[in-house]
Amino acid sequence: MSAQDSPSEIRKKVGEFLEYMEVERGSSPLTIRNYNHYLIRFVDWMKKSDIRRNLVDINQEVIRRYRVYLSRLPVGKDATMARKTQGYHAIAIRSFLKWLIKNDYKVMAPDKIDLPKNAERQVKFLNGEQVDRLLNAPSITKITGKRDKAILEVLFSTGLRVSELAKLDRDKVDLERREFGIVGKGGKARVVFLSRRAAEWIDKYLKARDDHFKPLFVRHKGKVEPTTPDESMRLTPRSIQRLVKKYSHKMKLPVEVTPHVIRHSFATDLLMAGADLRSVQEMLGHKNVSTTQVYTHVTDRQLREMHERFHGKSGGG
Q1: What range defines the domain where residue 48 resides?
Q2: How many angstroms separate the CA atoms of 164 and 121, rounded?
Q3: Given the residues 89, 147, 263, 264, the one annotated as active site
Q4: Active site residue 185
Q5: Does residue 60 fall inside a structural domain?
Q6: Is 209 one of the annotated active-site residues of the chain?
Q7: Which of 112, 140, 168 marks a domain boundary?
């Protein structure tokens, strides 16, 4: 085995690939952590299986054996790894191989690794009446209620990811033009537009604040000193998820509402109103339109129900 193909060198290549994801692709720390987990598991399995660990030894038979191993891997009492999680492992290996080829290593073609077919993704979303109930759930007599009302309005107005919402700073949001720029998942920049109502509630919330903190949405509990750093005041994605869940339960909605369900509701609402898929893709910050197409299954189903309810009822020829 050459020095280039030693086990430690393969791990080194994984490390370089993860650095590429961080620096050039702008992947999130969570994505990088997951890819590291998937790829090191594969390298460790090769070692335990007495497979030579040259890069060229990653072939279809090795991948087949590894996927059988993953499909039988216990992850709990009487449970094995979900097909979706197995798919994430395959995606990580394919991405790693693509990067190796890009850097002139002679390795197996990534497209020889098939991805497992998952059951059709179920998109949960709220209808118009349920959205209205959720948006009106906060009591606006206190500043926390004004903040929560603004958060819910912004989520439905923009379809932002919860991580994107949490990162917003007050000086970056133009309430007059009702827009702001954001760098989302994968380093993809986009312009986000606010509804008039969302802009009005942000304005009401900010006017109720008497602090100098930079984040748009901050906590209003706990001790605050003049020297308290901005970032310690910023509302976290987890806190935003908790408050959305609280109002969902308060209004007894039939769907377990999360910020992502509100994002789904935003996209579905646009498509049902006649927006084209490419525009919705841009507004959601999706890299590929195929990601956005999951919503067409929802709207197609709604249109089918509409067709069955109203078509041919007049009795005309």
Answers
A1: 3-112
A2: 23
A3: 263
A4: yes
A5: yes
A6: no
A7: 112
